[in-house]
Amino acid sequence: xxxxxxxxxxxxxxxxxxxxxxxxxxxxxxxxxxxxxxxxxxxxxxxxxxxxxxxxxxxxxxxxxxxxxxxxxxxxxxxxxxxxxxxxxxxxxxxxxxxxxxxxxxxxxxxxxxxxxxxxxxxxxxxxxxxxxxxxxxxxxxxxxxxxxxxxxxxxxxxxxxxxxxxxxxxxxxxxxxxxxxxxxxxxxxxxxxxxxxxxxxxxxxxxxxxxxxxxxxxxxxxxxxxxxxxxxxxxxxxxxxxxxxxxxxxxxxxxxxxxxxxxxxxxxxxxxxxxxxxxxxxxxxxxxxxxxxxxxxxxxxxxxxxxxxxxxxxxxxxxxxxxxxxxxxxxxxxxxxxxxxxxxxxxxxxxxxxxxxxxxxxxxxxxxxxxxxxxxxxxxxxxxxxxxxxxxxxxxxxxxxxxxxxxxxxxxxxxxxxxxxxxxxxxxxxxxxxxxxxxxxxxxxxxxxxxxxxxxxxxxxxxxxxxxxxxxxxxxxxxxxxxxxxxxxxxxxxxxxxxxxxxxxxxxxxxxxxxxx
Length: 518
Fold this sequence. Notes:
Blueprint: H1 2-25, H2 28-45, E1 48-54, E2 56-57, E3 60-61, H3 63-73, E4 83-86, E5 95-98, E6 103-108, E7 111-121, E8 135-144, H4 148-170, E9 173-177, E10 192-196, H5 209-223, H6 226-232, E11 237-243, H7 250-261, E12 264-267, H8 276-284, E13 290-294, H9 297-300, H10 306-310, H11 316-324, H12 344-352, E14 362-368, H13 376-379, E15 386-389, H14 395-406, H15 415-428, H16 432-441, H17 446-517
Parallel strand pairs: 9-12, 11-14, 11-15, 12-13, 13-14
Antiparallel strand pairs: 1-8, 2-3, 4-5, 6-7, 7-8, 9-10
Helix pairs in contact: 3-4, 14-16, 15-17, 16-17
């Protein structure tokens, strides 16, 4: 045993001597050049290309690294045995990824690639304004040389797009508001945000299924229409006008659109914005893939109606001067020129002007209870592309509400009761909000809830019938009064005309008689 240890010590001594001799004969520069040459020879004979994607590019975070990490977390062809679980900020979903120094295989357009997650210890760093993590992380992509030019660029673009979709799907929606008007906070943002947790979807929205299908198809075409909008030279945006009585589900429609597309919502409060420049500033600070909402636009501010301002004078030039010289167009609101000074022109440029093109993939949604109060220029195509009438509760919408609140499936409702509902719904004219409230009260007893709802609808229909009959009787009475009064006036005119005709006839007769006598 003693001889064994003696031999081992001698061998280690020889190795140390050889190492010191190599360092003396072959300096570090020569060794580095040799290793570099060996690496080139290896890659020359190798049939693969290797691409390293580091977590940090200098001092900035590499977006491609985060995109690859998200993309690989959703890939089903996982070959590794150890996975890391993560949960992002403002996210309700847990995603998995590759563990340290693990590999996985992916396929794109029929080409197989290999991903490896490389994690090494970082060397001791000198002074830095931004401390770097102790571990150096990155991904290594291995592609065959013959496939490099076929898929590399398109594959990376595909990964970026897929990662954005995953991030938007996993991350909770945000609801922004401009509570400070157009002023900026300490970070230079005019918007404040809170998590958007509204559960409304198109499945739970009480509307005609045909109308919902049209809206969903239109939204899907818009979200997938980047190439179409570029080809046609149009800005990648779309406008929707939701109008109808209160309680018909306009806000729920907006929430369903946001959840369907995965977009954030910017709730623009026009009463907090004082000038057109602040309005443009708010628009510039909105992100892509978002919905900009102005609710009750007819009640938000007093917008200028160009037809009313321009229709008072006879000449076109005078009418034009009246419009452009109006206080609203000069940016003055009120008697003394204070307060809100947003103009119709500023709002039109906000939705369809040059400033509306500063972002992409954005939707404008306006809501109103009185569409007749809005200026026609605000309603034309290009600003409000699709007009959606939110009507009173119909029978298809009622079936959706019965399914949501009482769990009724297709065919569970009795045929006779269904016929009664169909007959009375149009006459009652109740909104989905009123119907929902009637169902919530008795949601524990389905039969009772249906009976009471039917009774409420009948009472409402009878009340509407009486009110309509009363208004019809009033109209008939007014018409009778007009009919009784109008003949007297006309008769007087006719009698006067007849008397004048008679007088004229008598005078003519006298003149004829005098001529005969002569």
